[in-house]
Design a protein that fits this description.
The structure holds 2 protein chains of 2 kinds.
Chain A: H1 8-25, E1 38-39, H2 42-48, E2 63-65, H3 66-76, H4 78-81, H5 117-127, H6 138-151, E3 160-162, E4 177-179, E5 186-187, E6 193-194, H7 198-204
Antiparallel strand pairs in A: 2-3, 5-6
Helix pairs in contact in A: 3-6, 5-6
Chain B: H1 7-22, H2 26-30, E1 71-73, E2 92-94, E3 107-112, E4 118-121, H3 122-127, E5 130-138, H4 144-147, H5 155-159, E6 162-171, H6 172-179, E7 187-192, E8 199-203, H7 204-209, E9 212-217, E10 220-221, E11 231-233, E12 246-252, H8 259-262, E13 267-268, E14 274-276, E15 284-289, E16 300-309, E17 315-321, E18 329-330, E19 332-334, E20 343-351, E21 356-364, H9 373-380, E22 393-396, E23 402-403
Parallel strand pairs in B: 3-12
Antiparallel strand pairs in B: 1-2, 3-4, 5-6, 6-9, 7-8, 7-12, 9-10, 9-11, 13-14, 15-16, 16-20, 17-18, 17-21, 19-20, 21-22, 22-23
The chains are: A mainly alpha, B alpha+beta.
Chain lengths: 205, 405
């Protein structure tokens, strides 16, 4: 569970995007400095910076176990997401759906769809619980992330997560994403529908 | 020197001379054609901030839910005139409610892979050179119900997660020039100051191209629900990346896979894979009159009117079909036609009283032509419901009713 993150798919997708928008940057204009704004001190940056990268960059020190997460979840999450993560009304399911992505009724959850465990940690840390975001300690976020991953059978019941191990969790749908192929459907102004070739796609962007 | 003749004096003297010239009967000069007195009681006083006429009832639509701060409200496109959406009718999409932010305490921090991390107050930002551009904003999920085969019943219900405003602010490039991106910086994370700290990754190249850090909308400060006091405007790209209540920009060397780009706003296709970073909103159009929910008062002349827009550039052509898409006629593009903005089209039309459908399809300056629903669904399937831009049909019935089916 602690192997290095597999970023090959991710690199392909982002490289494609860099290619698509590279032409936009080509026309960089002259820079003007106005000396407006004040320097952000390292302390100010530390206090406000909550960005978490998929390789774990930015994760604060901390740890939490599946067992601890079960208690956090019961007290602070279950009233909206259900006692087993099944979701209630407007609050989405967190569990299940693995194997449904090609069906007519795909269920996109943390377990079946989310490609990175860091995304789960980051979203809980910044936005949950819905009514009181920002009130969980870092340890509680590690713990409840571990519990949700365990409910999805991604890590075992005796597992613990920390800033050193979270990014190494391999999510089932890690390789489930592709770069934007659009325009994928177009019609020549003359009339008949056609699907553009790779060459015509590139020339459009 | 300007002659200041009051309106009342001018009207009185005009009426007097008309009366003298044509010897109009006394009754005619005091009464309008319908017999109502042409003089009116004294009107309402001045007021510091204007409101619309009490007779105007057009409103955003939303479904009540158990999470009032999360969800969308829809713009009544069928009621709009011109290309600008009034700020009070601009569609909403929030993920954790609308924060009430005091601009005196709001700051934007730009840091990460930069030479000089900086914090800007609103006063700082207002000192920098402003830019103003008219751009549409469209939620990625606009018209999802049409894709799913449950077409919206009127333009508001089908296409109402679309609005268009003049946005004023500082070019993001100007702000990035102040901090000096390092060579390794290739993406940025933009973060809102809402309760959920909504954040998205954007390629640096787009940030340096045409992104605006906006504080103004249609001539005044942003509305709270549009991100007051500061938001990103990312022209032509899905609404979700236009981060509202902007508080932090972090320059990085990779996208950070936030929830709204790694799990949501991705497009599942039939083989079970999902398209990621599907930013651009492709060319799309909708007829807003005559449209679903409206009624034609018998055969005769009607102006077909609608809106067209493209996230890739400018609309160059809109065609209209009144015969199930068998033949198409060019509509006239009226008013302003601007890149990544709503364009208006119109076509004079005579309804012969028969049952028929009204459809529009647009072309943008990349040559892209708006596809049909069948063409889109054959490639994308029905599991991903964002970024749908198929041709929309309205159906005119013999009794003059216009509907979505």
């Amino acid at each position: 569970m602690c192997k290095a993150p597999d970023t090959s798919r991710f690199v392909q997708i982002t490289a494609a995007i860099s290619f698509l928008v590279a032409s936009m940057a080509a026309s960089a204009q002259a820079q003007t400095r106005y000396n407006v704004g004040r320097a952000a001190t390292p302390a100010e940056i530390r206090a406000r910076d909550i960005s978490i990268a998929p390789d774990g960059t930015g994760l604060p020190p901390g740890r939490g176990s599946v067992a601890e997460g079960r208690v956090v979840y019961r007290n602070k999450c279950a009233s909206c997401h259900g006692d087993r993560g099944q979701g209630i009304a407007d609050f989405p399911a967190l569990v299940g759906g693995q194997g449904t992505l090609t069906s007519r009724t795909p269920l996109q959850t943390v377990g079946s769809f989310w490609p990175y465990a860091t995304t789960v940690w980051d979203y809980i840390h910044r936005a949950m619980p819905y009514q009181r975001p920002g009130t969980l300690s870092n340890g509680e976020v590690y713990a409840v992330t571990a519990y949700i991953l365990n409910m999805n059978h991604i890590i075992p019941a005796n597992a613990e997560l920390s800033e050193k191990t979270l990014a190494g969790v391999r999510m089932p749908n890690r390789d489930g994403f592709v770069a934007d192929p659009r325009p994928d459907v177009s019609r020549s102004p003359a009339g008949s529908a056609h699907r553009p070739t790779d060459a015509s796609r590139k020339s459009r962007n | 020197m300007r002659k200041d003749i009051s309106r009342r004096t001018f009207l009185a003297s005009t009426a007097a001379s008309l009366g003298a010239l044509s010897s109009l009967p006394h009754e005619m000069s005091r009464h309008g054609p319908s017999g109502t007195p042409s003089s009116s009681p004294l009107g309402a006083p001045r007021r510091p901030y204007g409101d619309r006429s009490p007779y105007e009832k057009s409103a955003r639509y939303f479904k009540p839910s158990s999470t009032p701060g999360t969800g969308a409200s829809r713009t009544p496109l069928q009621d709009l005139h011109g290309i600008i959406t009034p700020s009070a009718l601009h569609f909403e999409r929030h993920h954790a409610g609308v924060p009430q932010i005091d601009p005196r305490h709001h700051e934007l921090m730009i840091h990460g892979l930069v030479e000089r991390p900086l914090i800007f107050t609103m006063k700082d930002i207002l000192r920098l050179p402003p830019v103003s551009h008219i751009h549409f904003l469209e939620c990625a999920g606009n018209t999802a119900s049409d894709q799913l085969g449950q077409p919206g019943s009127d333009p508001q219900m089908s296409h109402g997660l679309l609005s268009c405003s003049e946005w004023t602010g500082v070019s993001l490039k100007t702000l990035l020039d102040q901090v000096g991106p390092r060579p390794k910086a290739s993406w940025l994370i933009a973060e809102g100051s809402d309760a959920s700290r909504l954040s998205r990754s954007l390629p640096l190249a787009k940030a340096l191209d045409d992104v605006i850090v906006a504080y103004g909308q249609n001539g005044e400060a942003l509305r709270p629900e549009q991100g007051y006091p500061l938001r990103l405007i990312v022209p032509g790209w899905e609404g979700n990346v236009n981060i509202k209540w902007l508080g932090r920009i972090d320059l990085v060397d990779q996208p950070y896979m936030t929830r709204d780009e790694a799990a949501f706003y991705t497009d599942l296709v039939p083989n079970g894979k999902a398209r990621m970073f599907t930013f651009v909103m492709e060319a799309k159009s909708v007829i807003t009159r005559p449209a679903g929910g409206q009624h034609l008062d018998g055969p005769g002349f009607y102006e077909i009117e609608g809106m067209a827009w493209s996230g890739r550039g400018s609309i160059t052509r809109v065609e209209v079909s009144t015969d199930e898409g068998k033949t198409w006629r060019d509509a006239e593009l009226s008013s302003l036609v601007l890149p990544k903005a709503v364009a208006r089209f119109r076509l004079p039309w005579r309804w012969d009283g028969s049952e028929l459908s009204l459809q529009s399809r647009c072309t943008d300056d990349t040559g892209y032509v708006q596809p049909t629903r069948d063409e889109l669904v054959s490639v994308r399937g029905l599991n991903g419901t964002d970024h749908y831009n198929g041709i929309k049909a309205w159906y005119v019935h013999r009794d003059g009713k216009v509907s979505h089916v």
